[in-house]
Amino acid sequence: MSEFLGYERDDGSIGIRNHTVIISTAPYANDTVERTADIVDDAIPITHPLGRCQTKPDVFQTYRTLLGYATHPNTYGAVVVAHAGEIVDGDELAEDIAATGRPSASINIHEEKGVMNALDSAVDAAQEMVQDASAQRRVPADMSKLTFGINCATSDTTSGLCQHKATAGAVWRLIDNHGGRGCFAETPEFFGGENELSERAVDDEVRQEILDRVEHWDNRLQATGYDVRGAQPTPDNMDGGLTTIEEKSLGALVKSGDGPIQDIIDYGEKIPDKSGMYIMDTPGHGAESVTGIGAGGAHFMVISTGQGHTLSNAVMPTIKITGNPHSAERVPEQTDVDVSEALVGDESIDWATDELWEELTDVINGKLTLSETMGESQFAIHRIGPST
User: Considering the entire predicted model, what is its pTM?
Assistant: First the structure.
């Protein structure tokens, strides 16, 4: 397969979904956003506790993340809901969304003279967008347009031996055979493996940037008095047999394969158009990491899990793969692809890669993931500093 069926956007991107998102600019608009999405079928609420009393670096990161979801390839249009005069300006956000050719609306609770009026306006705007989106049809598009997001979740001893290898095989198939992109993250989980990882950089500048980012995270964590080396692996990782952060890191890096790394980019930054593998600088916290990769524009996410996980994203479909037969049995509604036969049976890693590839091509062309059918999603923007 060299083509998929997707939704064309005016900015040249192609989506594998056609969502209308309702975005809060601050926590005081969250309830209105949630109520709007409850009323309007197929509307996705994006709520968070940020957007107010933040320092400039955090304001920029919050804004960039929200804009990333509003202009994501899988997003048709966006309704922005603000509470009053916020540091994340709703009108500005709506204008930046409209600049990409997507329909957008800006609703301000104070300017609407209260929650009920704002809710009425938000529902009207969302309803129109959802209806218009439903009339759009998929068209053939080249696989080179696709970006493959990668993340771990509750890793165990099976992760680096099985499902991470299948994930690596699939992402590099997209890159090498179709000219697409891959993006992985979780910088603190490079600890102990950063030198090996940096040797894959395309040049010395990228190599040094990888090492500098890892050192930055180490210093940042140490400055809090928190020794990550004493807190990692996490309890669920240890339940799965992992013993040290170095063991966890080396296993986690398996999912990125062994090909060249083009660059390391900031949290929520747009993933470059050039084909190849990229790193996004995110925390190891799964919800924050996945949220960042989604903001960067990844079309879909493969979450490679050992013990099973509910981690999901509503805008960027998440495909969960495991090679642990006990996890596949324990949380079947969280297991899109079970490749445990490659670990405990007679199948090969190549077979596991083929199984994942078949599933992701179905998802790209419209098949819902298990988390999509259940309406599961977590949204968590990583913050840099304290509230003011």
Answer: 0.94
